[in-house]
Write a sequence for this structure.
């Protein structure tokens, strides 16, 4: 008699395991909650949850609350927290790991333009091999708040007059190789 295959129940990965599996997130379990990262962070006052709390929330499984918050998007990559952490954790890398998870899970905050800006940056780099600032900014404003472009128009004009804002994109040689690198980065855990 043919055996009936019974499907094994899906094993639900915990949030902390999920973060550990993203490059940069591996060491999160050794945090001692000393708060050095929050105390060192120049942008922490703007975060929904400050760095020490972010780490605690990952470990406690507050996935949705955290991934939909503005917290990690305020990380300026200054790496002060990473230099000062007594447990050699890399909080900055954890913030970037959380950004990747937020984008992948569709939970990225709408309060911040940063997730959209990152996406426009990557799209521009993927298309030309280098960032075409004018095209990237137009795309960003169209996707977020077109009226915000009016405020920045004088800055754009100043850059243009000083030859710092080309009207046309230029494409690098070796686009094929660049695409291979970007595809590999995506495969290794990048969001896009
Ligand atoms: S500095 Fe390091 S050990 Fe201290 S709370 Fe931050 S991540 Fe945890
Ligand atoms: S790297 Fe990010 S989280 Fe760490 S101190 Fe700088 S801004 Fe704060």
């Amino acid at each position: 008699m043919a055996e009936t295959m019974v499907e094994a129940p899906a094993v639900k990965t915990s949030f902390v395991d999920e973060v550990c599996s993203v490059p940069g997130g591996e060491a999160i379990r050794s945090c001692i909650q000393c708060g050095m990262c929050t105390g060192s962070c120049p942008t922490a006052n703007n975060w929904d949850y400050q760095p020490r709390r972010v780490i605690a929330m990952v470990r406690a499984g507050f996935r949705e609350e955290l991934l939909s918050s503005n917290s990690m998007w305020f990380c300026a990559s200054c790496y002060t927290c990473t230099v000062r952490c007594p447990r050699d954790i890399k909080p900055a890398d954890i913030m970037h790991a959380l950004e990747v998870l937020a984008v992948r899970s569709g939970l990225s905050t709408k309060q911040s333009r940063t997730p959209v800006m990152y996406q426009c940056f990557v799209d521009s780099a993927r298309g030309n091999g280098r960032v075409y600032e004018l095209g990237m900014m137009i795309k960003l404003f169209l996707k977020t708040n077109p009226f915000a472009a009016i405020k920045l128009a004088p800055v754009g004009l100043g850059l243009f007059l000083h030859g710092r804002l080309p009207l046309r994109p230029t494409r690098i040689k070796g686009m094929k190789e660049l695409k291979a690198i970007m595809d590999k980065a995506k495969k290794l855990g990048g969001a896009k």
About this structure: The mean pLDDT is 88. The first helix runs from residue 15 to 20.
